Amino acid sequence: LVGSEMCIRDSHQSGRWRDLSRVLTLEADESTDGQHEAQLRYRIARIQRQRLGNDAEALAALERAAELAPGDIGVLTELGAIHERSGRWDALSDVLQRLTQVEKSPRALISLLNRLGTLHQGRLDDSTGAVHWFNAALAIDPLHPPTIRSLEALYENCLLYTSDAADDSLR
Predict the structure, then answer these.
(1) Residues near 65 by Cβ (< 8 Å), separated by ≥ 6?
(2) pTM above 0.85, yes or no
């Protein structure tokens, strides 16, 4: 382990990110401690994404880290960022929903619920889901202005669509 730690430090200091990723992967593969392995996989993912621009490797490392540490907000946040950047909207929704289960801060939770509502309204074209998530945010703070505005706009769009559909049926 001491040799491994020296190799990690040297690779990090010299900017040899591929080498560092390989060493961390070997250490993670040999780890018998799930929490330690999850931390290593998270580090691997950050190196792969930020230093090497390899989202596929980062995604694989983060998925494994999320299996080992399903309530780790850092892992889930990073996983969500990759899904968002690659346009995997259903996967992003799943990750955001998992984050709502572990987030303790009411303000951060409202933000996540709003984000879910906006995602369902826009990218997923799911008005019912959007209403659900916006209402969940309002259950925490019934006077939250951004949520109220989003829900009003959603209802207004639904009314316009219903009105247009009714007009079309009369023709």
Answers:
(1) 37, 38, 39, 41, 42, 45, 72, 75
(2) no
